[in-house]
Amino acid sequence: MMDYIRRHLGIKLFITYLMVILVGVFVLAATAQFAIPGAFDRHMAGMGPMMGWGGGQGQGIVMEDLYGGFRASFFDALTWAALAATALALVVSIIFSRSVVAPVRAMMAASQCIAEGHYEERVVVGGIDELSQLAARFNTMAGQLEQIELMRRRLIGDVTHELRTPLTTIKGSMEGLMDGILPATPETFQQIHQEADRLARLVDDLQELSRVEAGAYPLDLKPVRASDLVESTLRRLSRQFDEKGVTLSTDLPSDLPAVRADEDRIGQVLINLVGNALQYTPQGGSVTVTARLHENEVQISMRDTGAGITPEHLPHIFDRFYRADKSRSRRAGGGSGIGLTIARHLVEAHGGRMWAESAGEGQGSLFTFSLPAAGG
Ligand code: ADP
User: Fold this and answer.
1) Which of the listed residues 246, 276, 280 should we mutate to test ligand 1's pocket, taking the one with most ligand atoms within 8 A of CB?
2) For residues 307 and 233, what is the distance between their CA atoms, to the nearest angstrom?
3) pTM above the 0.85 mark?
4) Per-residue pLDDT at 70
5) Whose Cα sits closest to atom 12 in ligand 1?
6) Residue 189 and residue 208: Cα distance in Å, rounded?
7) Paired strand residues for 368
8) Substitution site in 205, 302, 323, 330 for ligand 1 pocket (most atoms within 8 Å of beta carbon)
9) Phi–psi pair at 293, nearest 5 degrees
10) What is the pLDDT of residues 335-369, one digit of tens each?
11) Which residue(s) pair with 250 in the sheet?
12) 170, 196 contact by CB (below 8 A)
């Protein structure tokens, strides 16, 4: 019984109302018991002369009779009033508890559905009271869970797809070697090694991506000169530019304010952007790295005269695993399409932004990222 009461809001409400009614009836009855005899006597004594009573025993009997009748009708009325109030309390508690319990039940049912994997489940929100606000927040939370689940599924799909390609090539080559179809030449081994290398890079990239997305890395922020950051990166890549025959130039004003940055992390971003510019620019082309101050931030841009990016690819190139031309990236030993995703996360962790512009295919690209100026 107690358990049943504890589980039902409507019964709890009804019991609360009932207690209030009982206290009211008790107080009224007790007050009537003590106060009515005196008041009745006073009133009757005042009415005696008007009614022509002369006093004596006859008057006492009439008074007692009248008082008995009055008392009985008073307590009758009180009993009916208590019963009516109890019935009303029952009706009110049912109606009220329904209006409270119905949305709570709906949320309970929806949360159960979500727990079972039906992330599209929502509750109907009507009204503006606290319960409706709770329902609206519940829906927001359900929407976010649905989004996370979608991303998780997409990530698993993407990773599986990315792993399958090199694995299939390695497996196929090994089978060819075992069956004697493929010659055991250095080229064959070189090809297998390349695919294994690709797998290893992919796993490293994935590990880095998960760390960066979770924000699970420390940032050693220090004021550094943007030109120092750019120059040290370009020194590391200059040989590759020479080998490919792509011109590398810079425009780095000497009066730029320092930026607050983790040198290693921003170095990683620069390597990725300048490396991409080199990869997608054919021989004879050029890459220019510039830096400028724009409202309290230093913007570093990489402009190349290479492949360019078509408008339909441009909004997606920062998405993970996105490659505008998958076959070309693979053939050219390109990355897995994670580099820009990591780079943008790193820049955003510094409080900066990153974006890309391109006039279209063959028109070159411009990648820019900003970092807050130190002390700004
Ligand atoms: P990847 O390792 O494949 O280069 P990224 O995340 O670095 O991956 O880049 C994603 C995609 O963006 C690339 O596959 C390419 O299609 C496009 N991209 C990046 N940089 C350039 C660039 N400088 N010129 C043309 N396309 C680019």
Assistant:
1) 276
2) 22
3) no
4) 83
5) 317
6) 28
7) 301, 355
8) 323
9) -90, 130
10) 678 899 999 999 999 999 999 999 999 999 999 99
11) 289
12) yes
